[in-house]
Amino acid sequence: MTKKFASSLLVVALAGLAGCSSIQRDPPIQMLDDMKHQPKFKAQASIDGIFADGRSNRLAPEDTVARAGYREETPMNTGLSSGMYIGQNPVPVTMALLKQGQTKFNIYCAPCHDQTGMGHGVVPTRVPSWQPSNLTEDRVVQFADGDIFSVISNGRRTMPAYQYQVAIADRWAIVAYVRVLQRAAHGMPYDVPAGTTIAAVR
Ligand code: HEC
Question: Which atom from ligand 1 is nearest to the alpha carbon of 148?
Fold first, then answer.
């Protein structure tokens, strides 16, 4: 490598570094557009001179319904009938439904309400100012099934909505399982069949 070549390399390198430190205020020179500029109207933007009402496009015809994600307002989908919470779970309660409810409750509800529903989950131990309701207390035992479904779907006061995480069928399974937890919390000695031993229960 000649001396001259080496020093010209140094000059180029220094010029490069100088480029890094200087603040460029002009927009970069664009050799090829690369689709960076895409003239268009945004949906429902107000643009003069296209349509008489000043919109950039037309509104959907009246009474149009969504083809995806549309849910009819049935008791199954809303927990309501004529504006009132339905009293009873519309899904027949079977052992399989309760097992499904247990699985989903332990995933979606137990972090706050704990696996017994009493409200001592891991979240309130970390955030003591955010206390979940005790789902086994009389006030909640008195809730209609549709009311519990509605709390899961829409949230209530400081409880967030779970309709986006928990499918409708799973919500009804959880409602059925909340009833199991309530029944268990209010169990009486006479609920246990005579002759049952601890070993048998375990
Ligand atoms: C992120 C924590 C959190 C999760 C998860 C959660 N809850 Fe709650 N829940 C709360 C809090 C907090 C309250 C009390 C709301 C209040 O009174 O401000 C509550 C209240 C309730 C109530 C009673 C409402 C009332 O009037 O007292 C029900 C029923 C309930 N939750 C059911 C559920 C079910 C079922 C799930 C699972 C799908 C669930 N929650 C998941 C935090 C949670």
Answer: 29
CA of 35: how far to CAs of 27, 116, 126, in Å?
16, 58, 50
* Ligand 1 pocket test target in 100, 107, 108, 112 with most atoms within 8 Å of CB: 112
Every domain of the chain and the residues it spans? 93-188
Q: 202 C-alpha vs ligand 1 centroid, how far in Å? A: 30
Residues with C-beta less than 6 Å from any ligand 1 atom? 108-109, 111-113, 123, 130, 132-133, 135, 140, 148, 151-152, 156-160, 162, 166, 174, 178
Q: What is the dihedral of CA 101, 104, 141, 197, to 10 degrees?
A: 60
Longest dimension (CA), the chain: 104
Question: Does domain 93-188 fall into CATH 3.40.1280.10?
Answer: no
pLDDT tens-digit series, residues 50-102: 899 999 989 889 998 878 778 889 999 999 999 999 999 999 999 999 999 99
Atom 23 (ligand 1): residue with closest C-alpha?
133
